[in-house]
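Aim 2 progress update. The chain analyzed this quarter is reproduced below.
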Amino acid sequence: MPAWTARDIPDQSGRRAVVTGANSGIGYVTARELARRGAHVVLACRSAERGSRAVDELRAEAPDADVEFGQLDLADLASVRQFAEAYEDDRLDLLVNNAGVMALPYRRTADGFETQFGVNHLGHFALTGLLLPRLLGTPGARVISVSSGAHALGNIDIGDLNSERRYRRWVAYGRSKTANLLFIHELARRLAAVGSEVVAAAAHPGYASTNLQATGPRMEGRRAAARVMELGNRIIGQPAETGALPTLYAATAPRVKPDWFTGPAWGVRGAPTRSWRAKWTLNDVAGERLWAASEDLTGVTYEALKV
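Predicted structure tokens:
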């Protein structure tokens, strides 16, 4: 069977999509390829300057693209609420929770959460909940969260979600990516319980060569570490064009089922296929506990999914 590529994306005409972190890397490629196939795509980005520039670049690459910029800072729940309130369309066919940060020095979000957990998980948890009525009202809708193979670095610590007792940047990153998978697992379970056909699934890009890897070292002025990350991008990483394929597959391929985890065939690179995941990301009790904690921390409750 031939490897799945962007050419296999079905027609997206009439579909409405939101892609977070779409100003660069795999988020940009995801938004561009969806738009090329007819979707109206909102590029949800923190920086108005970078987001608007990405819209211009995308239109230059795909002149017929129907795209727009949406202001969204996942490190600020007020911004998440403002974005959801500003989304005026009655339907939402696809929400791609793509934006993320990696292995940063210890920082807190505007709401006091450890940044990796706050941005990678809580911001997207709140966004999905606030947009849920549109998703539930749209036949064939999907929610795709971008996790990472690095989720294997750590299971969540429900008693220390914000890493207040001890902070190790890579463990915190792995835990935030585990949280992405547990969120999708529990969301898929709850959707099925209320009889919804919305598909909640996850993907990871393998080792994609983007600006994500070197951001943390640059923030601390660790030039040598930043150069090592950049070297790894050149030697090991696959380009964003390929790294985005698992996300695009999860978002559009007809055969994708709830709670699937899609990644590169060879772990770090290759064509998209079903991916290995740690057993703790399929733990119902952990999923329920993380969900309850996330509702408490964000103030966003999924009333339509309560049974």
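The first strand starts at residue 16 and ends at 20. The radius of gyration is 18 Å. These observations will guide the mutagenesis experiments scheduled for the next reporting period.
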